[in-house]
Amino acid sequence: MDDSSRPDPDTSPEPSGPAGAPPVGPPAAPDAPTLPPSGPRKDLMAVVVVVAAIAIIALGIAGWMYYQTTASQRAAVELLEGATALVESADAVVLDLDEVVRAEIDSEMTTRVAEVAEAVPSAVEKLEEALVLIDESLEDLPDDEIAYARALRSSAKARLEMFEQADPILDTNKKAAAALEPATRAWALVLEANGLSRQAVEEYNKLTRESVTRSAELTRQSNGKVIEAKALFSEAATGFPEADLSMYIEYTEAKLAALVISKQADEAFLGNRPAEANTLGNRFNEAERALAEKAKELPDSPAEPIAAAYEALAGKATEAYLQARARATEADARLREADGRANG
CA–CA separation, 181 vs 232, rounded Å? Predict the structure, then answer.
């Protein structure tokens, strides 16, 4: 076949299928790679943005929560520090009260009692406020401060319990102090009067005008001391009516009656009435023997009935006070231990 019979590719008719449709077969391979559609790329970018936004929000929330937690802890610690300051401030009154409760009653006790009693209400307010601050702080305190806070609360509560017993103790201390000083002075005067009375008897028994004159003077001095003693015993009994000082007052009254007889005997002797003087002398001796028996029934000191009355009035309160004091001491030990750990 020559070249003229070879079909021209440019002029050869296209092959056709039935009814002139294009031939069925695979499409021609593309000359370049096809780019991915634009729709899916936009969705991926949106997901990345959302994830990033969530991460930022989470970081923001975490940061806010950390800030809030730190701020709350700082505030709680400040509350605890305020409570500590209040307890320390109240401690000055606690120590004064403790000194009064544990001290021996003397004439200066009345002044100390008045000072402490005046200071107690303010100290109680401070301790109550401290408890409020501690309770407010506990929820947000750092873990290493919790033990200290609880110990401080126990310490403050124990101090309040001590103050709860203060009124009956201080009131009884005040009464006892008011009674003890005059009663003690009164008894000392009675002992001096008895000594003068014995000297008077010795002078009288010499049976001379000069000696009986000295006896009369000694009797007069003894009488004056007993009168003063009776007034002081009455003062003590008025100041502390719960203390039974009646036996001392009765003794002074009996002593005064005996001294009246002694004075009459002196006057009878000096008036040259020997029979009357002897009769009066015998009556005086009988009165003195009765006084000696009455003296045996007296306590060694008027401090004893005063102490008994004190125990009856303030014994239970004092016992409760000492128990609360022991709890405060124990709480203070835990407080020091907790403070050492927190600061260590």
Answer: 9
Residue 232's Cβ-count burial label (10 Å; 0-12, 13-18, 19+) is buried
Closest CA relative to residue 170, chosen from 123, 109, 91, 127 = 109
CA distance 245 to 238: 10
Q: Are 150 and 330 in contact (CB under 8 A)?
A: no
User: 16 pLDDT exceeds 70?
Assistant: no
How far apart are alpha carbons 190 and 296 in whole angstroms?
14
* Nearest-angstrom CA–CA distance, 109 and 100: 8
Q: At residue 342, does pLDDT exceed 70?
A: no
Cβ atoms within 10 Å, residue 234: 16
Name the residue among 119, 125, 131, 186 with its Cα closest to residue 156: 131
CA distance 126 to 120: 10
Task: Report the alpha-carbon distance of residue 29 to residue 293 in Å, rounded.
Answer: 147
> 205 and 259 in contact (C-beta within 8 Å)?
no
DSSP state of 4: G
Tokens of 74: 């700082």
Check if the beta carbon of residue 205 is closer than 8 Å to that of residue 176.
no
Buried b (16+ CB within 10 A) or exposed e, 2-39: eeeeeeeeeeeeeeeeeeeeeeeeeeeeeeeeeeeeee
Taking phi over 0 as left and psi of -120 to 50 as alpha, with beta for the rest, 19 belongs to left
Tell me the pLDDT tens digit for each residue of 205-225: 999 999 999 999 999 999 999
From the CB of residue 92, how many other CB atoms can be counted at a distance below 10 Å? 11
CB 236 within 8 A of CB 302: yes
* Res. 308 pLDDT band, cuts 50 70 90: very high
